[in-house]
């Protein structure tokens, strides 16, 4: 179904644009937050790697262990989501945190450069995904050097939980912002369409005879519309004037023949042919009545949006003219027209009517 309201169309378009922009912005903010959290967590994992490397101990067999426990208690809680592991590349032996319990970190089978931190996304206990930081280091065990792979991992569910909390907060804020922007858009659309309401009032004023043209003091964008409407009114006025001129020409064209017929009827009556004279006079009178009536109707039909003319001054002018006629002083005129009474008509047409 086609929407016929321009205001509603603009409002729907603005709402869709606002919601789409805020949705993209919200997605971007969540993505940036997730990257920031991963960098922050990555920095913590690197700190744990450094702590493990600094607290390494080896027994007489070269087996690695830690001098005490790390500060974070989650390393001592089973399946807590925070794990560390030390892998011996020569013996394939493992030393791990209590939190791994009976599992181990499945590190990729690669050989990263010594001392460089590598980041992996690996499977963890209980079908979890782990963000893992790994570093290969060479240690002096007392009986020789040994290459160990140190790894610290954290459950990505923790990152996902932080992301979900942040996304909820962002969604609420963006919804409030969307409501404010939609309200502002509604106000902006109303202000933008206000000139069209002014045009509607102007057309109503033209139809009511209060004015004859639209006000040209309008915004630049709708000025061509106002100019076209005024040009159309100019063309219509010219067409009406031509119609009045043709009607006047028609009246004058018939006046002489009708006058001649009435003169012929008078002569016939003087000759005693009264029946024929009366018939001709009656026909001429009927024709004159028809002409006057059609001319009057034409004037009335052509009354469009001319400025309202007060009837009182026109009638007073006619009374003044009639009083100056030879028999005008013998006639008593009474003017009962209400003050301010006006009609939509040309003054000349009103005088003729």
Question: What is the secondary structure topology, with strand pairs?
Answer:
Blueprint: H1 6-54, E1 56-58, E2 64-66, E3 82-88, E4 94-96, E5 117-124, E6 128-140, E7 145-155, H2 156-207, H3 223-270, H4 274-301, E8 308-310, H5 311-323, E9 342-344, H6 347-352
Antiparallel strand pairs: 1-2, 3-4, 3-7, 5-6, 6-7, 8-9
Helix pairs in contact: 1-2, 3-4
Explain this structure.
The protein has helices spanning 6-54, 156-207, 223-270, 274-301, 311-323, 347-352, and strands spanning 56-58, 64-66, 82-88, 94-96, 117-124, 128-140, 145-155, 308-310, 342-344. The protein is α+β, with helices and mostly antiparallel strands. Helix 1 (6-54) packs antiparallel against helix 2 and helix 3 runs antiparallel to helix 4. The longest helix is centred in the middle third of the chain and has 52 residues, at 156-207. The chain is rod-shaped. The relative contact order is 0.07.
């Amino acid at each position: 179904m086609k929407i016929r309201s321009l205001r509603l169309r603009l409002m729907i378009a603005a709402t869709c644009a606002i919601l789409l922009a805020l949705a993209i912005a919200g997605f971007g903010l969540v993505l940036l937050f997730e990257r920031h959290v991963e960098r922050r967590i990555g920095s913590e994992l690197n700190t744990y790697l450094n702590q493990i490397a600094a607290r390494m101990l080896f027994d007489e067999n070269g087996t690695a262990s830690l001098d005490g426990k790390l500060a974070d208690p989650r390393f001592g809680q089973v399946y807590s989501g925070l794990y560390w592991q030390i892998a011996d590349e020569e013996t394939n032996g493992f030393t791990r945190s209590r939190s791994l319990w009976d599992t181990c970190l499945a590190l990729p089978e690669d050989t990263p450069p010594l001392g460089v931190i590598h980041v992996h996304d690996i499977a963890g206990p209980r079908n979890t995904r782990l963000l893992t930081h790994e570093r290969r280091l060479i240690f002096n065990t007392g009986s020789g050097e040994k290459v160990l792979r140190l790894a610290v991992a954290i459950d990505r569910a923790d990152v996902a939980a932080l992301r979900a909390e942040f996304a909820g907060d962002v969604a609420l804020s963006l919804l409030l912002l969307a409501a404010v922007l939609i309200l502002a858009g509604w106000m902006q659309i109303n202000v933008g369409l206000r000139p069209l309401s002014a045009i509607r009032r102007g057309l109503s004023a033209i139809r009511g005879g209060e004015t004859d043209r639209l006000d040209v003091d309008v915004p630049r964008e709708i000025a061509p519309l106002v100019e076209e409407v005024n040009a159309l009114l100019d063309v219509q006025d010219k067409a009406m004037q031509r119609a009045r001129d043709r009607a006047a020409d028609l009246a004058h064209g018939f006046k002489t023949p009708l006058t001649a017929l009435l003169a012929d009827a008078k002569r016939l009556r003087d000759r005693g042919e009264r029946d024929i004279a009366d018939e001709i006079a009656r026909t001429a009178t009927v024709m004159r009545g028809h002409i006057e009536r059609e001319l009057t109707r034409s004037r009335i039909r052509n009354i469009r949006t001319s400025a309202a003319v007060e009837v009182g001054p026109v009638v007073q002018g006619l009374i003044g003219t009639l009083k100056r006629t030879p028999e005008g002083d013998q006639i008593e005129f009474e003017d009962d027209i209400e003050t301010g009474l006006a009609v939509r008509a040309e003054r000349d047409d009103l005088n003729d009517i």
